[in-house]
Amino acid sequence: MSNKVAVVTGSNKGIGFSIVKGLCRQFDGVVYLTSRDEGRGNAAIAKLKKLGLEPEYHQLDVVDKESVKRFRDHIQEKHGGIDILINNAAVANSADFYNSYEENTRIVEINYKSILLMEEFIFPLVRENGRILNISSDCGHLSNVRNKYWIERLSSKNLTMDDINEFVEWFLDSCKNDTFKREDIADEGTVAAYRVAKVALSAATMLQQKKLEEKNISVNSMHPGLVRTDMTLGAGFYSADQAAETPLYLVLDAPDTLKGAYVWYDGKVRDWYDYNADYYFKTSTLKS
Ligand code: NAP
């Protein structure tokens, strides 16, 4: 076996679990299934062992700095680096389309701010020519934003992490102060925290690409489709195993030139900046 290493966050169930399963079969190296809860993680490992697969396990809560540092130290000592990193962990907006400030803060922390922790502590372990894939959403396309000021600012060629972080704080402040305007976000502002977090994630992906260019690491974000998992309460047109195919293609087989892109579930690159496009998430699709 080679010394290569692949890591998937939030992989005790859903799409992350299916990606780990696929990596165990197709990737020539060690595959890490990680989870915030050890019990759920070990149960997932047992399922894969029954299939004759041999993933490694480590606890990793992507919003817990100490957990992220423990994972970093483990990988550093045992393997020295990572070749494939899939940032998949996330939570849904709950069954309600409009949430409290506290819920919105939690969603933004897990779905966006976690990537800042991962960038600080785990990205430095990613080896030359490595691949990073951020699992975003159709909610992560710029067309989910309807506020003109933020469309312009997020579209800037000189975009910085400060711009993205201020966008996120603008949204959270509006929830805190009860000044959130539904017309600022697509689909009448439904699942706004999830949309804001995923837009921020896809925007950050492009900046991460620039930072990691020197090491020829690719960093892309993708929308996995509407997938039948716990997150959608079982709604969707894809199974998790089917949905894992494009992420697997992106980290294993896509050309080296695919960098800083926003990719759709069919593997095609979509123009993230096209804010007039009809790519934003419609809550009505959950009922169809
Ligand atoms: P899921 O079945 O709910 O799985 C989410 C995973 O993330 C679970 O393993 C969960 O662990 C984990 N997680 C949550 N918070 C975490 C934390 N702080 N640290 C580590 N792990 C954490 O959802 P899914 O549908 O597979 O979603 C996978 C990815 O696809 C997400 O990024 C999601 O936003 C994206 N996505 C999904 C759909 C869809 O239709 N399903 C559509 C667009 C995008 P626990 O079991 O401990 O909660």
UniProtKB/TrEMBL annotation:
<comment type="similarity">
    <text>Belongs to the short-chain dehydrogenases/reductases (SDR) family.</text>
</comment>
<keyword id="KW-0560">Oxidoreductase</keyword>
<dbReference type="InterPro" id="IPR045313">
    <property type="entry name" value="CBR1-like"/>
</dbReference>
<dbReference type="InterPro" id="IPR002347">
    <property type="entry name" value="SDR_fam"/>
</dbReference>
<dbReference type="InterPro" id="IPR036291">
    <property type="entry name" value="NAD(P)-bd_dom_sf"/>
</dbReference>
<keyword id="KW-0521">NADP</keyword>
<dbReference type="Pfam" id="PF00106">
    <property type="entry name" value="adh_short"/>
</dbReference>
<protein>
    <recommendedName>
        <fullName>carbonyl reductase (NADPH)</fullName>
        <ecNumber>1.1.1.184</ecNumber>
    </recommendedName>
</protein>
